[in-house]
Amino acid sequence: MRFSSLKHLAASVSAIAPEAHIVVFGSSSALCTHPNLPEVTNSYEQTLDADFILDPWDESLGNLLSETLGKDSGFFEHYKYYADIVRPAAFDNFPPDFRDRLVPLEGCPRVFALDPHYMAVAKLFAGRPKASGCWLFSWPPTGWIKPRCASCYGTRRWRRNGS
């Protein structure tokens, strides 16, 4: 995934959902903060999708976006990247104050990305095997993710319901 591809996808989602705010999360969300990330790490060569959540959620619009821009769409067949439209239940994996730290996607009004530190911790908390090979682990050498900072997000600010 390249920054230009993310912007193209986000603009396409935004055009189909002109009333919604759009939250980008997952590995591609880091491009909003660091557009040159694919030049620094090769982990983005394998990323073909960007995860988007409509806010507020609209089931029929979410389905339309998945059909139009998703993995099984003509869009993917043509451009070789796609939008993964995710339900807002994913917000449950984000810290309560995540909206206060959203990063705007340059040139795409109403499109915001999860703060990279929050995304790093969310990937670790999700505990998916795929996360161990993600962009998170290529970041400490660049200094973009501060492990101590990400650790603080995970221990102090993120705990929900006593967990």
TrEMBL record:
- The organism is Prosthecobacter vanneervenii
Top-level division of the source organism's lineage: Bacteria
InterPro entries named in the record? DUF6036 (IPR045792)
Residues of the DUF6036 domain: 5-130
Q: What is this protein called?
A: DUF6036 domain-containing protein
